[in-house]
Amino acid sequence: MRGSLERPRRLRRLTVVGGLAAALALGAVSATAGVVQAQGLPGQALTAGTSTTTSALLPDYDNEIVTRFDSANSVEHIRHLAVNIGPRLNGTPQEREGAEYIGGILESYGFKVSYQTWGPVSTKRVAKVTSPNADLPGGPNWQMAASTSGKFTGDNGVEGQVVDAKTGQSAADFPSDTEGKIVLVDYSTTASVRNTAVANAVSRGAIAVILAYPTGNSAPPSFTLTTPQPNLPVIGGGSAHSAWIRGLLAKGPLTLRIATNEYVNPMGTNVLAVRHAVGDPTGTKAPIVMVGAHIDSVLGAPGAHDDASGNGVSLEIARVLGKYPLDKELRIAGFGGEEGGLLGAREYVKTLTAEEKARFVGEWQMDMVGTPYEPARLWALTPNGQSNFVVEEAYKAADRVGFEGLRNCRLGQSDHQAFYDAGIPASLFIWLDYRPPAVCGSSGGSYVTEPEYHRPTDTMDNISPERLQITLDVVGGAVAHNALNAVKVSAVSDGGQPLAGAPVRADCGDGERNVGMTGTDGRLDAVFPHATCDFTVVVDGATVVERGVSISGDRELEVTVDLTKPTISLTKPADGAVFTLGAAEIVSYRCEDNLSGVAACTGTVPDGGALDTSTVGFHEFAVNATDKAGNSADQKVTYQVVYPWHAYFPETMDGKAGSAVPIKFSLGGDRGTGVIAPGYPASQQVTCDTGEATGAAAPTATPGNSKLSYGGGQYNYVWKTEKSWSGTCRKFELKLDDGSSHFTTIRLK
Ligand code: BES
Ligand code: ZN
Question: Is residue 452 lining ligand 1, measured as CB closer than 6 Å?
Answer without folding.
Answer: no
